[in-house]
Amino acid sequence: MQFTAEQGHRYRARIVVGFWKRAFASEGAIAEQLKDAGVEDVQVQKDANDSSTYWAWGSWNRESRTVDLPGEVQEVTDLGKR
User: Fold this and answer.
1) Which backbone phi and psi does 34 adopt, to 5 degrees?
2) What is the DSSP letter of 49?
């Protein structure tokens, strides 16, 4: 799935990890991957009702750009400008 991150916007994403990746997934590991990709002010929370789902929030402060999202990212919601 392609997604355009707009400069100055805040986003929420639903991330679903597969069975094998679940053993290595953690809020901290997911947050680090997002930070490495350029997302700032990252917060990650595991879904209380589904052990394979994480919710992440963060801001994109770099120039707007379109990227291919990994398959684990199931949904992205634009929460508007910061």
Assistant:
1) -65, -40
2) T
Cross-strand bridge partners of residue 10: 59, 80
Q: Residue 55: how many CB atoms within 10 A of its CB?
A: 16
Q: Which two tokens stand for residue 17?
A: 């990890």
Query: In angstroms, rounded to a whole number, what is the distance separating the alpha carbons of residues 22 and 60?
Result: 26
Maximum Cα interatomic distance, the chain, rounded to a whole number of Å: 36
What is the count of structural domains for the chain? 1
Range of the domain at 38: 2-81
Question: What residues contact 45, with CB distance under 8 A and at least 6 apart?
Answer: 27, 54, 55, 56
pTM over 0.85: yes
pLDDT digits (tens, 9 = 90+) for 2-55: 999 999 999 999 999 987 777 778 899 999 999 999 999 999 999 999 989 999
